[in-house]
Specification:
homodimer, about 230 residues, mainly alpha, 9 helices, elongated, disordered N terminus, DNA-binding
Chain lengths: ~230, ~230
DNA sequence: TGACGACAATGGCGCAACGCAAAGCCACCG
DNA sequence: CGGTGGCTTTGCGTTGCGCCATTGTCGTCA
């Protein structure tokens, strides 16, 4: 579900008189502010991916953006809030890709499953740093709380959605004796394993192992619906 | 290779005059010291697994052990050194299990591969906290440097060893057209994916997905040598 | 058009936490 | 009984977060 676009509103709790103002105010100040917010988020992603959570401080983020640390505190009220916004942003990005590749209208269940495979692979190829941020966030127990709120529910939803598609394929294709749950969980393991391992050992990136193995498992389960390439 | 047993010696650079002293000195003080070292390592593992790297401090470790923080500094000269010792300890533990299950004399290549599967699964089941520590260490870029020195070489060696076993099986079994490299890499992905995912989402632990899927892939590649159970 | 108000952004400060080094204490070995 | 070695106490220096007063910038209303 392409949820909230709340990202930009993150830090502002000021009462703007509730007047409906979203439409008109072609305001250069507001534009500048939102641009700053995005630049801060981008810088944070960059820093986390490159140096890890531990060495990321407000002043370094500010330095990387080219502003003072107080600006960061101004837009996001605290460090934790900033991290929350970052994870929300990345989650939304993944969601957008998933919607495009999996939920596009007119696709067959088989095509949707292939779309899901594509989604995992493309995301990792296009934005390795984003994947790194996901991994970093979900490792440390403290930041993991944030991940549990924002990232994990989506993750579980994607796995469940894929599982439903597999069930549909099994039913319509007349397959019996296929252990759908194990298969879905395996695909999940593979995706996260690939992401984690690539983050850990970037040199081995960009081989086609993930895709090949997933197709192998799918072919093994539904030979008439998934061809090996 | 069951490398160094240097763990206990980690923090001491004091010149003990080079005199060979490893044998005799049945010294209660020394025993106490080594017990302290082990307790510190255990406490550190516990804390990292439960709270993450960020919130682990020297004083918390000391508090958890029931001593002053300076004791920790005394045994390991710095925080980084302590972490290095912890990772070394865990690495040695895994190595011991691997040697038992994979390199035991008299095993056939097939049994060795099954032993490797067992190894990954048992380690995660017996010591989930140890796995968590591995994951935590290899995520943050800073601690990752330590992991790259101590953990990663072993990891790569295990994968390579498994790959060699698969090659041997393929050769002796007369299999052709099996993509060994992809298979070995897939098993690697699965292991790390399972570890990472279980660390991330502990509630789903202890299903048999990892084993089932690995056996499925092995059966698919070498049907006469690996049976589905 | 000029003054006001909202909003973006700055620099600096206080407080707390942490790592680490120095010096002394005390048990135990020879 | 001298001294080695494990362990504690104390305190210093550094670093980071978050708040404050303030400045600069741009719409808006008289």
């Amino acid at each position: 579900m392409a949820q909230r676009k709340a990202t930009a509103e993150a830090g502002k709790s000021k009462a703007t008189k509730g007047a409906a103002n979203d439409a008109a105010p072609k305001d250069r100040r507001r534009e500048r502010g939102e641009a700053s917010i995005q630049r801060i988020i981008d810088a944070t992603i960059e820093l986390i991916a490159e140096e890890g959570l531990a060495s990321v401080t407000m002043q370094r983020i500010a330095e990387h953006v080219g502003s003072s640390n107080a600006l960061v505190v101004f837009h996001f009220r605290s460090k934790e809030n900033l991290f929350r916004a970052v994870l929300q942003y990345l989650s939304d990005q993944y969601d957008a890709l998933w919607v495009t590749l999996v939920r596009a209208p007119g696709l067959s269940p088989v095509e949707r499953v292939l779309g899901a495979v594509d989604c995992a692979q493309r995301f990792a190829r296009l934005h390795p740093k984003w994947v790194s941020v996901f991994v970093v966030f979900s490792s440390d127990r403290k930041s993991m709380q944030i991940y549990n709120e924002i990232g994990l529910p989506s993750d579980l939803a994607y796995t469940a959605e894929a599982r439903d598609l597999l069930i549909e394929i099994a039913r319509d294709g007349g397959y019996t004796g296929v252990d759908i749950d194990t298969l879905a969980e395996s695909l999940n393991y593979l995706v996260h394993g690939a992401w984690y391992w690539d983050h850990l050992n970037p040199s081995s990136r960009d081989t086609d192992v993930l895709r090949k193995t997933m197709l192998l498992l799918l072919h093994q389960a539904f030979p008439r619906h998934f061809e090996l390439e």
